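I'd like us to work through together how a protein chain folds, taking it slowly. To get us started, please write out a protein record for me. Go ahead whenever you are ready, and we will take it from there:
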Amino acid sequence: MRTVALLTYFLYSLQLLGQNDSNKPNVILFLVDDMGLMDTSVPMLVDKNGKPQIHPLNKFYRTPNMERLAKQGVRFSQFYAQSVCSPTRVSLMTGQNSARHRVTQWINPETKNAGPNDWNWKGLTSKDVTLPALLKKNGYHTIFSGKAHFAPTKYEGADPANLGFDVNIAGCAFGAPGSYLGEDGYGNLDPKRKKRAIPGLEKYHKTDVFLSEAITREAITAIDQSIQKESPFFLYMSHYAAHSPFQTDPRFGNNYKDSGKSRPANSFATLIEGMDKSLGDLMDHIERKGVAENTLILFVGDNGSDAPLGDTYGYFSSAPLRGKKGTCYEGGLRVPFIAGWAKPGKANSFSISQNLVQHRQIGTVMDIYATILDATETKNPYSHTIDGVSLIPQLKGKINPDRPDHFLCHFPHSHRSSYFTTYRKGDWKLIYRYSIRLGKKPLPKHELYNLKVDPHEKSNLADTKPQKLHAMIKGMIIQLKKEEALYAMNNKKEVLKPVLPPGK
C-alpha cells in the first residue's frame, strides 16, 4: 500500500508540474540585425515633455506591426546595445556586458579579428551559462530561428543547438546571408555567394520565398509543436535583415520607388518592412492559437543603424542622432526596444503599460536576460555574474530605484570608430579614444556631451568642463576594472589603458 501511495503521489506531482508549466508565459525575443533607433515608423524620441516626436526617417520607413506592438506596450527612447552585433548577441544570451564576457568585436567565421590577446573570439560554448539553457531546465521548449553569430564556424557555439536550444532554424557562424532570395537558395545555388549560404532551408530553394519569410514560417511550425506538447516556448526570432547585402524584398519594393533615396537605401527599407511583416505574422498566429495573452514579446535591435544613408559619423542614417553602426555616437549605440504582451488581457502574468514611452531611465541589452528570467521565474546561478537588471518595473511605468544610471561600451579593436570606450552616466556621456587618429582623420582624444541639453552630440565640452571630464574618466576606469576589461596594445606592445588628464 505504501508503494502504491508513493507512486500515486509521484504521478500527481508530475501532473501539477505539467499544469504549472502550461501557465508559464511564452516569450518571444525578436531581434533585428543592424536596426537602429530611427529605422521605424514608430516615433522613439521624445520632446522635453516626454511626448513622442516624429522625424523624417519615421515617415520613410513602414513598420505597422511595430506600431501595433508599441500601442499595446512600452517603448524606450534610450535603450543601448553594443556598437556591433556579436557583443550584443552574447550579452543577450548571458546578461553580461561585453567587457566582462570579452566578445568585444564581431566574430569572424573563419579567423580571429585583431584585438587584445585574450578577447573571446571563439564565442560561446556549451559550458557557458546561457538564457535558453536556463529556460530549458525550467520546462521551456527553446527555439532559435535566424542569425546566430555566436562563434566561428569550427567551434561548437556556431550551432545554437549546443547552447541550450531544442530547435535551430538557419542559425550558424556568419552574420551576413549569402542571399535573401529563395531563387538563389539563400546563397547555396550561387557559387559567388556559397561562402555565406544559409543552412537548413532546402525546401525553399528555387522558390520566391524571401529569407525573412522562410525563417518566420519555420518558427511558426516550431511554436505549433510547443503548443501541441503543452510546453511553454521561448522563441529567439533573430532576423538576418536588415544586414547587407541590400537586396530588395520584392513584396515591398513598390512602396519606395518614389522615395527620392538611393537604391541601396530603398532596399534597406524593404528589408525592414519584411521584418515587420514577420512580427505581425507571429502575433496573428499566436492569437489564432489562443496563447497571445500568455506570450511576452521583447523587440530589440542588435546595434545602431547601418542604413546606407550619408556618411558614417554624420546625421544621416540615424537622424537626428549622430553616427551609425560601429561608431561611438548615439546613432551607433541606441536601438529600438519595445515590450508588450502579444495581446493585453486578464491572462497576462503581470501588467505592462500601454502606449508608453519610457524616457526617464535608460535600458540596455544586458537587461533582457534578467527580464526574461524574472518574467518566467527562472533562477540565475549564484556563480554567474550579470550586469543587467529586470525591466519589469519600468514596463509597469515606474521608476526603478535599483536601475544603474550608467552604460559602458568598450571597443579595443579597429573598426569604424577604433579603440574607444564610451561611458554614459546620468545625462553625461564620455567618449575616450586610445588612439587619436582614425585613418587620416584627426579626432579628439576626449569627447564630453550633456545629452539632456545636447542629445545630438554637437557640442564637445571636454575642454570647457575639465572637472566633469575628470570625474567621467575616473568613473569609466572604475567600471572597466569592475567588469575586468581587456585593453588593446600598440605597435610597441604597450597596453593602452585609460589615464586621467594631467594636472587633475
